[in-house]
């Protein structure tokens, strides 16, 4: 029975750690202004298009 309690406690701690990581990422993400987000999305799109063009040719 003790093993189940430890497993449950580990699950709760993992959930708390995940929540803390998500909250931290959210705080970091909110510090971007709209132009920075737009520029990053355009750069990711350009990389994806270039990668797709590279696989289509090869």
Q: Would you mind describing this structure in some detail?
A:
- The protein has 58 residues and is an all-alpha fold.
- The protein is 90% helix and 0% strand.
- The chain is built from two helices and no strands.
- The chain is elongated and about 60 Å long.
- The relative contact order is 0.06.
- The model has no long low-confidence stretch (mean pLDDT 89).
Radius of gyration: 20 Å
Instruction: Characterize the quaternary organization of these chains.
Output: single chain
State the order of secondary-structure elements, H for helix, E for strand.
Answer: HH
Class per helix and strand makeup: mainly alpha
Molecular shape: elongated
For this entry, give a set of tags.
58 residues; mainly alpha; elongated
Task: Summarize it.
The protein has 58 residues and is an all-alpha fold.
SSE topology:
Elements (H helix, E strand, L loop, with lengths): L1 H28 L4 H24 L1
């Amino acid at each position: 029975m003790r093993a189940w309690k430890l497993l449950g406690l580990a699950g709760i701690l993992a959930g708390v750690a995940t929540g803390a990581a998500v909250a931290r990422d959210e705080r970091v993400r909110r510090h971007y202004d709209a132009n920075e987000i737009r520029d990053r999305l355009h750069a990711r799109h350009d990389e994806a298009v270039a990668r797709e063009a590279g696989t289509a040719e090869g």
